Amino acid sequence: MALSHRGAAAQSGVQVTPDGKQNLISKDVGDQRWAIGYDRASGVVTGNVFFPGGGAAAFVWCERAAEQPGGDDVALSCFGADACSVAPCTPEQWTFLATVTLPAAFFEPPPAASGAVPTSSAELFAWLQDGRYRSFAAETAVHPSAGPHGGAVRTFVNGALERSLGAGSAAHPAGSAAVKELYAADRSTLTGWAVEVKLQDDSAGGNGWYWYEVFSTTDGSRPIEGVGNAACTGCHAQGDDYVRIPFPLQ
Ligand code: HEC
User: Fold this and answer.
1) Whose CA is nearest to atom 39 of ligand 1?
2) Cα(213)–Cα(200) distance, rounded to whole angstroms?
3) Which of 67, 74, 189, 238 could potentially form a cystine with 184 if both were Cys, beta carbons 3.0 to 4.6 Å apart?
4) Beta-carbon neighbour count of residue 165 at 10 Å?
5) How far apart are the C-alpha atoms of 24 and 161, rounded to whole Å?
6) What number of other Cβ atoms are within 10 A of residue 49's Cβ?
7) Which residues line ligand 1 (CB under 6 A)?
C-alpha cells in the first residue's frame, strides 16, 4: 500500500462526532480516498484507505510521529493492514508504511469565513494569496473590465457590502469590502488583485476607504495602496459611495 499526500487539501469532508472527541475525515489524498477518524486528544488516526480502480480497502492506523515538523504541519507514523480473516487479529498483521506529513488543517473543518479584510499591505497580500475572499458573494464569471483594471476581472463583495448594496445605501458601513481578481487575457490566469475596504462610516471624499492594487500573485512588495489613495478615489468617486460594480452582481 503506497501513501502519498499530494493534493491533500483538495477535497474536504470533515465531521465532528457528537461527543466532540473525534474528527471524521473523508478526503482524496493523491488518487486515494481516505475515510479516517482522528482522535483529537491522542492524535491517533484510524480508518480505511480506498484505492483507484476499487479492490479491497486497506486499514490504516497512525500515531503522532516522535519528531514533529513544527509550524502548521503534523507528522504521523502510519501502519497498514489488510482485513483480518479470522480472530484473533494480532498486532503482527500491521506493517509500518510511512511517515506522512499533513497540514493540521487536513483534519479540521474549514474555518468560519470572516468578512473582515486586512488593511495592512503585507497581511492583505497573504490573505489574498490564501483565497480567503472566495467565500464572499461573487460575480458569476470573469468579464472584461469597464475600467482600467487590466483585461478581465471578477469582483467579490463581503457580507457588509453586499447587504449595503442590496439596501441601496448612499454610504456603506465601516467594514464593507470588495476584492477584485485581475486576470490575463486568457481569463483564467490570475495576475493580481484590487481591493477596497471601508475604514469608517464616513466616506470622507475617499479617505474613508483603504485602497490596494497589486499586479502579481507571488510578489506583494510593490502594491499601489493607501488610505484615500488619489490614484483610485478620483475615478471611484463616480460610483455608489466609491463602489463601481453594478449590483445585483452580474
Ligand atoms: C479610471 C477609473 C478607475 C480607477 C483609476 C480605478 N478604478 Fe477601480 N474600478 C473602476 C471601474 C469602472 C470598476 C467597475 C468594475 C470593472 O469593470 O472593472 C472598478 C472596480 C473596482 C473594484 C471592485 C469594486 C468596485 O468598486 O466596483 C475594486 C476593489 C477597485 N476597483 C479598486 C481600485 C483601486 C485599489 C484603485 C487604485 C489603485 C482603482 N480601483 C482605480 C474604475 C477605476
Assistant:
1) 232
2) 20
3) 189
4) 22
5) 35
6) 20
7) 145-149, 153, 155, 178, 180, 194-196, 211-213, 224, 229, 231-232, 235-236, 239, 243-245
| HSE-CB of 26 using CA atoms within 13 angstroms | 3
User: How far, in Å, CA of 154 to CA of 141, rounded?
Assistant: 6
Provide the residue type at 72 as one letter.
D
Cell of 29: 489524498
Q: How many residues does the chain have?
A: 250
Question: Distance between CA atoms of 114 and 161, rounded to whole angstroms?
Answer: 13
End-to-end CA distance of the chain: 48
Which residue is listed with cell 470588495?
Answer: 178
In this structure, the residue with its CA closest to atom 22 of ligand 1 is 180
164: CB partners within 8 A, 6+ apart: 172, 173, 176
Query: How do residues 13-61 score in pLDDT, each as one tens digit?
Result: 888 888 888 999 998 888 888 899 999 888 899 999 998 888 888 999 9
Task: Tally the C-alpha atoms within 13 A of residue 106's C-alpha that lie toward its C-beta.
Answer: 26
Residue of 199, 232, 233, 250 to test ligand 1 pocket, by largest number of atoms within 8 Å of CB: 232
CA angle 217, 126, 173 (to 5 degrees): 105
Q: What is the dihedral of CA 201, 206, 207, 210, to 10 degrees?
A: 80
Please tell me the distance between residue 112's alpha carbon and the centre of ligand 1 in angstroms. 28
Q: Tens digit of pLDDT for each residue in 177-188?
A: 999 999 999 999
